[in-house]
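User: Quick sanity check before I run a bigger batch. Here is a single chain. Can you write out its predicted 3D structure?
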Amino acid sequence: MSESEMQAELERPRAENAQLKSKDKGGLTLKVSEKGGLSLYGMGRFPVTLYKEQWLRILASASEIEAFIRENDSKLKTKE
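Assistant: Done. Predicted structure follows.
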């Protein structure tokens, strides 16, 4: 591997890191992981990665989850 190829290989993760750091703090992004899972970025320090059928199951239950959150609002904490 030549020196220019090594430099290019080092620049790739640096550019990715800079792009991730510059994104809006409130924004969410999606990415297909190496193993074929769907990763959701922007919820915390690490992505939430689940397989397609798991995401679809959560999305199908969205109204139940929202109702549960409303019913238990006084017990639930918010991250500031």
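Residues 44-74 form one domain.

User: Great, the batch can go ahead then.
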